[in-house]
Amino acid sequence: MTAQAQVKAVDTTPLWRHVKKEWKLYSFLVIPVIYFIIFKYAPMIGNIIAFRKYRGGPNIFGSEWVGFTYFEMFMKDPTFWRAFFNDLTLSVSYLVVKFPVTLIFALLLNELRNIKWKKFVQTVSYLPHFISMVIVAGMVKEIVSLNGPINSVLASLGVDKISFISLPEWFPAIYVTSGVWQSLGWGTILYLAAMTGINTSLYEAAKIDGASRLRLAMHVTIPGILPTVMVLLILDIGSILGSNFEKILLLYNPLTYETADVISTYVYRMGITGGNFSYATAVGLFEGIIGLILVTTANAVSKRTTKSGLW
Amino acid sequence: MKRNSTFSTFNIVNTLFMILIVLFTLYPFVYLVAQSFSSEAAIYAGKVTIFPVEFTTKTYEVILSKPDFFGYYWNTVVYSVIGTFIAVAATAVMSYPLSKDKLRLNKFFIPFVLFTMYFGGGLIPNYILIAKTLEMRDTIWAIVIPGAISAFNVILMKTFFAGLPYELEEAGRVDGLGVFGIFTRIILPLSKPILVTIMLFVMVGIWNNWFGPSLYLQSKEKWPVALYLKQIIDNAVSPTEIGATSDQTSQIAASIKSTAMVLTSLPIICIYPFVQKYFVQGMMIGAVKG
């Protein structure tokens, strides 16, 4: 260990000489970096239209400054606040259900001793992750439809049919359940990867001490995957505003806006459909900045408490 | 040790739980297939739950006899192949130098890439850039370029490259290979799991993409099948438009949706088991070391 650390001595050659020496490797980066500037960073700068009166057209710089006018506008807009709280409600309820369920599923998968059966369960559970959102939304609509299987079961129990997809009170349940269906298997993949990284001698030592399976999971497996758990939790917290845009766009309808409309769908309707580009950009920028603040805060808290974080 | 025997209570309960998960995951697919082979009357009566009722292949005949569906399908294939090639090549080229500790400027470039994972331009600025500033509207480039490199894929591939034994590169250098030769003849052939993983991620992403095309492709003949499917599900496309004769239209309104969904997801479901082992390997290596 110490020998390796010594090898990594600080490179003291002047920067220009270093670049000159390694220019072939650096040249690999030219096109990708230009790509990042155009397609990732330019849109960030494009957010300045939130502070300008943009009327469409290719040039985002040719319009007058309006300061925080659009931000003040959406702060007074009840539709924005509805979207804001729906976003929070949907993300938090999804997180609260998905997170423990995925973790428990991963722990149980890890306990399967029959390798073929384990592989089979994994293969099946990953599959929904690869299905188009259009198809997922289509499936959901068919399954909860008036003549779908859920209503058939209800009918056989003597309960009246329910038009789930047009009732606002059912939207969060549909959103969370279909989200768990889609992500359950995929969510375990990093936990399982982390579990294979745990030193097997820890298990053996604990077994000699007479630890039961539950205790092995509690005292060896869970601490072993804690850094992974924290990283995934931080990422989830960072996207707490920003519920799944595509899925909501495909599943909601004016009847369910009350509980289903979130910030990103509101931005879509305002900006793309309604043409209020500057206003929609201001709302979108607000969402992005909140996300960034949340990730940074969660990361700082995690680093202080568990010593693991994203950076 | 009785605790570790295969027939312990825990194992039985766990196996039952796994069976439940498998059923929960597969049921929507089963339902969709059953519906696509059922008669419209049976669907409306709510009789279809697991097996097809009043078995018929009518909707398949209607869709498959209409060349349009294949046209949209073909567009999807073209977008996926070209887009995947661009994305994998660009991701690999970017990740390789970033995996080298000796490059001092990586201290700047890695955060430069990472930052885009946590903050993005947002829908409207991206739309204005692609549609208005770059005028990529109604071209394949609007579909395959904007999403070509993602920070997540770069980090995954960079981690994989960093784990390859340094001695191999050294051997290549001794044999007279340059930087580019080492990359194409030593690094890339050794990186099959991660290349296939990224390839699969990108391909599935483009295959399933309907939102980008709905924003940028005005001419219907350029649409990918996912966007067409969305129109069918929204009932924006009537059965007659798909090519059903008038006596068929009343028969197929609901099962046409299921049939179109089955046909669209079929290629993914068919390829998936074969590439699965690669992406699990690729994700694991990329994640454990990361």
TrEMBL record, chain A:
It is a multi-pass membrane protein. It comes from the Bacteria. Keywords: Cell membrane, Membrane, Transmembrane, Transmembrane helix, Transport. Residues 84-298 form the ABC transmembrane type-1 domain. The chain crosses the membrane at residues 23-42, 91-109, 170-195, 216-241, 277-301. One of its GO terms (biological process) is transmembrane transport. One of its GO terms (cellular component) is plasma membrane. It is found in: Cell membrane. Gene3D superfamilies: MetI-like. Pfam families: BPD_transp_1 (PF00528). Belongs to the binding-protein-dependent transport system permease family. This is Protein lplB. It comes from Paenibacillus donghaensis.
UniProtKB/TrEMBL annotation, chain B:
This is Sugar ABC transporter permease. One of its GO terms (cellular component) is plasma membrane. The keyword Membrane applies. PANTHER family: ABC TRANSPORTER PERMEASE PROTEIN MG189-RELATED-RELATED, POLYGALACTURONAN_RHAMNOGALACTURONAN TRANSPORT SYSTEM PERMEASE PROTEIN YTCP. The lineage of its organism: Bacteria, Bacillati, Bacillota, Bacilli, Bacillales. Keywords: Cell membrane, Membrane, Transmembrane, Transmembrane helix, Transport. Residues 73-272 form the ABC transmembrane type-1 domain. It is found in: Cell membrane. It is a multi-pass membrane protein. GO terms for biological process: transmembrane transport. Belongs to the binding-protein-dependent transport system permease family. InterPro entries: MetI-like, MetI-like_sf. Its main location: membrane. Pfam families: BPD_transp_1 (PF00528). The chain crosses the membrane at residues 12-34, 72-96, 108-128, 140-161, 182-207, 252-275. It comes from the Bacteria.
